[in-house]
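Key idea: predict the complex, not the pieces.
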Amino acid sequence: MTFFLVSSAIKVFVVFNLIMVGVALLTLLERRVCAWMQDRLGPNRVGPQGILQPAADGLKNFLKEETSPAMADKALFTLAPIVSFVPALLTFGVIPFASPLPTKWGVVPMVVADLPVGFLYILAISSLGVYGIVLAGWSSNNKYALLGGLRASAQMISYEIALGMSTVAVLLLAGNVTLSQVIAQQQQGLWFVIPLTLAFIIFFISALAETNRLPFDLPEAEGELIAGYHTEYSSMKFSMFYIAEYSNMVTASALMATLFFGGWDIPLTSWDSTGEPTVVKTLATMAVFGLKTFSFLFTYIWVRWTLPRFRYDQLMALGWKVLLPLALVYITMIAAAIWYFRVQLGWTYGPGMAAALGGLNLILLIAVVWWLDRGRIVSGSMPQEAA
Amino acid sequence: MAIGVKVMKRPTKQTSYLRATLKGMALTFSHLLRPKVTMQYPEEKSSKDWTLSSRWRGTHRMLTDEQGRAKCVACGLCPQICPANCIKLVPGEDEEGHRYPLIYEIDEFRCIFCGYCQEVCPEEAIHVGVHYENSEYSRDRFVYDLERLTAQTHPVSTLWDPSDPKGE
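Result:
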């Protein structure tokens, strides 16, 4: 028991700090990648290659004057940043980030809390994040902030459904909601991105919307809502929203890596998941997990500096008219296919079944892309009536 | 669509969001790897793509003769031609009859950097300079006196030459 408590406390401390440092570096990465994509250099003055820029930003935010609108609801106004910040960090608690670490006192699983209901916990907690944004918008007593908050609630609720639906396919295939089991399943066969490509795509798009990133950053929409829900926030409170946004990105990326890209699994080898756990294995798998998460984070940033923001009706149309029906149809088909393979043919999950499902996905993917490509829902210059 | 708005029927290739997205992503990624155009200013003041033109008209410089005296003979042409009226000149004369400026001050805040003073100067004494870094702690430091003007070391402007309009 003591061992469990001590090891958990250490893990909480380490994970919290890793995320905080990661988020800090991510803000720098965002600015530098943005600059590079615009043929600029970006912040490179504070420390070598600007590596200390986040520290300077943090210091600035601590020292800035904190303003509070006179007509704001003080209690909720203070609570809102906390409410958006805490769930962003809580969700990371159930994500396994490396293979178990052997110590003198016993083997430590490299996850803060390997909950049996891991995935459901993530869905539950990540939905709480929207409260922070809505409360911020409402308590500011500012019409722009309120509009931002309203948009955020509508958007996040819409995409939450598509997000949840897309993961149902993963849970069907894994037969378990514990994330460590989901990873173990993927180590036996192929990564779930192959048998569940479409689910991954739906998940990815929904995750962009869930984290309020471009092209779905309508709650912020600096052009029309002057930063939306955090218009009235300054200094550290504003920083909390910022950190929350980036923590959400880290969690969403880690989740994509876990659910669809094998978590900490090193591809093309079973060395990492079989045999005695060693420190080398833990470090190697942690690096691989970090790399996978990083590649998703980079994609987030890449998408942000490429795409313009959706119009609000386009956003809603994409969520309700495309992703949700698509996810529902997809679950039905995948469930039928899994039932056929498991029950009728008596297969268990392995490369064969993954490849068969992958083929099915390929066909579906081509059909979906063909349909979306006609531009019926998210049309550019063509109005919907004329299509 | 509102009444009377003509809607063009465009081919899928032009209206597809997916294709536009992929094209855009490819474009931004290619820019990620391209050489950057930023000049690291305080360290790097000119690059192979950009240097200050030799015709640049910046803060003034008074040239001196071999004895280190200002070349100015206080003829009064520069305050006469100056459209901004920023040159203050009080002429003096020594016992040999040589004219020299007792007071020669240029208010760089009033100056519009037209370069007429350099153009009109018969002695090639006053020049506008190829120089742009002029920060000071107080406004009155921008009234350059004769001592300050002769102490400047930056290159002088070549101005525009009508016989060689492209500067070749």
